[in-house]
Amino acid sequence: MGVFIGINREVRRVYGFDEVSLAPKDLTVDPNCVDTSWNFAGFKIKYPIIAAAMDGVVDVKFAKTMGKLGGLAVLNLEGLQTRYEDPDKVIEEIINASPEESTHLIQTLYKEEIKPELIVKRIKEIKEAGVLAVVSVVPRKALEYGKIVKEANADILVIQSTVTSVKHYSTAYEPTDFKNIVKTLNMPIIIGNCTSYEAALDLMDTGVDGILVGIGPGSACTSRGVLGIGVPQVTATVDCAAARDYFFKKTGRYVSIITDGGMDTGGDICKAFASGADAVMVGSLFARAEEAPGKGYHWGMATLDKNLPRGTRVKVGVNASLENILIGPSNLDDGSQNLIGALKTSMGSLGAKNIRELQLVEMVLAPTIKSEGKLLQRAQHIGMGKK
Questions:
Q1: How far, in whole angstroms, is CA 316 from its chain's centroid?
Q2: Least packed by Cβ within 10 Å: which of 62, 68, 193, 360?
Q3: Mean pLDDT across 319-328
Q4: What is the pTM of this model?
Q5: Residue 386 has what pLDDT?
Q6: Can you tell me the distance from the alpha carbon of 117 to that of 59, in angstroms, rounded to the nearest whole number?
Q7: For residue 378, what pLDDT is reported?
Q8: Residues facing 157 on adjacent strands
Q9: pLDDT on residue 387
Q10: What is the number of H-type helices and E-type strands within the chain?
Q11: Residue 27 pLDDT
């Protein structure tokens, strides 16, 4: 329902994770009996959680570990891993730079040319571990690098930019023909990012297998602050999931919706699935893993934008191994560890035996729910809660 913010200026009310909650009903399920698997493009993936294509989060070693644990990790083929033979040394420079120097240093380091032979090398290194090799490129390089990716036998290609649309206008160059890319490469492809029903439908019509949802919600992404664009993730996911369901009824082809960014806890991830996601893509939570190359730091992909290079190095710290963060055991109480444990427990409490059923649970508006319990803590702090 729209509201007016001034004369003849109507806006739509939209929602983020902190404004909604999930409502249990009359059925509960043993968390050990729920199925968290994700069927995508012929692959059965144990956990529908993906580590984002950020150089401070995913390198070859991280991708191998994540794959063996049952999730997916996306390696950025236009990042440091394919620009430098020894990316660890370059990442060390970024980690050790002062806050004032870090953004300029990152932008400088990313000016190094991408080396096609390193694309092949990194994919083969991941494949040697017997896990799925998932890699990302930007739209304008998708066909060129995509051919190298397919030749190297990567399993899934992610084509990703800040805002991605089929309908694009330019007088300087030909718009990216996503339909031709999908047809030419003939491999599982995920495209993003978008936030609207119409954009999602257009992208699905190109023949892709998955759509990334989210513009600027991540802690290391500055798109919302710098560009002023974005839609809170609950509404964005609901809208794109509606497009998925309509497209499936119309064509019989199911295209996965992947909520990308903005999730800080296991509870946020559960809400993303309840909003309609088939999988989620996470950055900052995994940047905290002991295995993450950034050693507690990460930075956004927008540093690659030649028109407006931006992004910031964020310090998130290191609090656990990747295994602890993904599947536990947890020693934190904020929901930032044991993401699968949180997901299974939530599904059980909501009576959802699989992800599809979780997509259908009741959601309620609850903007104050996070403050419940904190009122008593504050009262006790000032002595009001004592008898």
A1: 17
A2: 360
A3: 93
A4: 0.91
A5: 45
A6: 16
A7: 54
A8: 135, 189
A9: 42
A10: 15, 16
A11: 96
> Helices (DSSP H) in the chain: which residue ranges?
60-69, 87-96, 99-109, 116-127, 142-151, 178-185, 197-204, 223-227, 233-251, 266-274, 284-287, 322-327, 339-350, 355-358, 374-381
Cα separation of 346 and 31, whole Å? Answer: 8
CA distance 129 to 122: 12
Tokens of 35: 């199925």
DSSP state of 63: H
**pLDDT > 50? residue 7:** yes
Q: Please classify residue 306 by burial: count the beta carbons closer than 10 Å to its beta carbon, then call 0-12 exposed, 13-18 middle and 19+ buried.
A: exposed
Cα–Cα distance, 69 to 52 (Å, whole number): 16
Tokens 């030419």 identify what position? 184
DSSP string over 305-359: -SSS----EEE----B-HHHHHH-----SSS-S-HHHHHHHHHHHHT-SBHHHHT
Question: Mapping DSSP to helix (H, G, I), strand (E, B) and coil, where does residue 22 land?
Answer: strand
**Residue 383 pLDDT exceeds 90:** no
Arithmetic mean of pLDDT, 303-315: 61
Q: Is the pLDDT of residue 304 over 70?
A: no
- pLDDT confidence band for 381 (50 / 70 / 90): low
Name residue, tokens 């602050």.
225
What pLDDT sits at residue 334? 59
CB atoms within 10 A of CB 172: 4
Query: What distance in Å separates the CA atoms of residue 166 and residue 207, rounded to the nearest whole number?
Result: 12
